[in-house]
Design goal:
By secondary structure, the protein is α/β, with parallel strands linked by helices. 52% of the residues lie in helices and 14% in strands. It has one domain: TIM Barrel. The chain has an eight-stranded parallel β-barrel with strand order 1-2-3-4-5-6-7-8, surrounded by eight helices. The C terminus is likely disordered.
């Protein structure tokens, strides 16, 4: 099965309610491979351990697709707590959040107010806030929020661009002119052929193009990938073009290629580990399994 077909098939299966029920009932122990814990305290402990290895962190309180704005208020308060805890413990960490956690699908204005409260609090402690990119119904709205924050002099916020979308090259060009800090990723949602590349080779080629667009313009960028093709290409491009190691960073997920993360840090590269925690782990977990068959095989091996 090709990588693209594998990903689409698994994401389709994972949306089945019976599969979701069984996974939540029996899969929490397996999901702990990718999740730092249920509580902020557990996530902060993992953060300190990673910092000890020279690895930076971005903390993510799991959740998305809320049904009531009171839930958004709860996520806002949790993120304010995260920011205060980062400042208190003086760890090398920032935060990542999903706009739908904060009410984007229910009330865009209230969503912006919730996010602005978090970014404002973070600014006082010089903490960066990343707005994760979700599926395409929210792409433009997420970019609009970032622009609105920057217009209000909240420059400590950035977002994510997904290489599998056709629109991403133009988005990167525009946001680069605006000096927006970006994380570049392949993309982990099920998207139709009308808006996204379905072939893994095309996604890889576009990913490299986006990285080059950013690095050659000297704008700080996070390259988020576990793929050695991307990691090695980025290292080679930076070396050949005299791009300093402190002008970009590699990002990887908690529980995946941890030895590689430590190795890159030892080589002098800036490395950041995406550390999620919380009870709402199922959507995040299924996207990790869908990214490549090796992740699913690792889980099945642990099961049996």
């Amino acid at each position: 099965m090709g990588a693209g077909l594998y990903r689409r098939t698994l994401l389709t299966i994972s949306n089945n309610k019976l599969v979701e029920h069984l996974s939540i009932r029996y899969g929490r122990k397996l999901a702990s491979k990718f999740i730092a814990g249920d509580t902020l305290e557990e996530a902060m402990d993992r953060t300190e351990e990673l910092n000890g290895q020279g690895i930076m962190v971005t903390l993510d309180h799991l959740g998305e697709g809320i049904k009531d704005l009171s839930e958004a208020a709860g996520y806002r308060e949790e993120y304010l707590k995260i920011i205060r805890e980062i400042a208190k413990r003086k760890v090398n960490a920032n935060v990542s959040l999903k706009p739908t956690q904060f009410g984007l699908a229910l009330d865009p204005e209230q969503c912006y107010a919730n996010i602005r409260a978090v970014v404002s609090e973070a600014k006082y402690s010089r903490i960066f806030v990343r707005l994760d990119m979700e599926d395409t119904p929210y792409t433009q709205a997420t970019i609009d929020i970032i622009r609105k924050l920057h217009e209000g002099w909240l420059m400590n916020a950035g977002t994510v661009i997904q290489a599998y979308l056709f629109r991403s090259e133009e988005d990167v060009k525009a946001l680069s002119k605006e000096k927006v800090n970006l994380r570049l990723v392949k993309g982990a949602y099920k998207e139709p052929a009308e808006v996204a590349y379905q072939n893994a080779g095309q996604v890889l080629d576009n990913f490299k193009k986006l990285i080059e667009l950013r690095l050659k313009n000297g704008i700080y960028t996070a390259v988020a990938s576990h793929d050695d093709k991307i990691i090695n290409w980025t290292k080679d491009y930076a070396a050949k073009n005299n791009i300093q190691k402190d002008t970009f960073e590699f990002q990887m997920l908690y529980g995946l290629r941890m030895s590689k993360q430590a190795e890159l840090a030892q080589e002098g590269y800036r490395v950041r580990c995406y550390v999620p925690y919380g009870a709402m782990w199922y959507p995040y977990y299924t996207r990790r399994l869908a990214e490549k068959p090796a992740n699913l095989m690792m889980v099945l091996k642990n099961m049996f």
